[in-house]
Design the sequence.
């Protein structure tokens, strides 16, 4: 009884940590994607201004 309770508690801690970690990773990934896409768009604008206009 005690051992299963202990295991459950540690699993919950681990899950909680994983959830926080996952959110951080997602946030960082989204940030990276945003930065890279905006950088890419800027490059496209500089290369092909006639297609994209002045956005």
Sequence:
């Amino acid at each position: 009884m005690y051992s299963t309770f202990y295991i459950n508690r540690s699993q919950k801690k681990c899950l909680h940590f994983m959830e926080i970690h996952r959110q951080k990773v997602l946030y960082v990934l989204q940030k990276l994607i945003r930065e890279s896409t905006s950088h890419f768009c800027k490059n496209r604008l500089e290369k092909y201004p006639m297609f994209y206009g002045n956005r």
Observations:
- DSSP finds two helices and no strands in the chain.
- Helices lie at 2-47, 49-52.
- The mean pLDDT is 73.
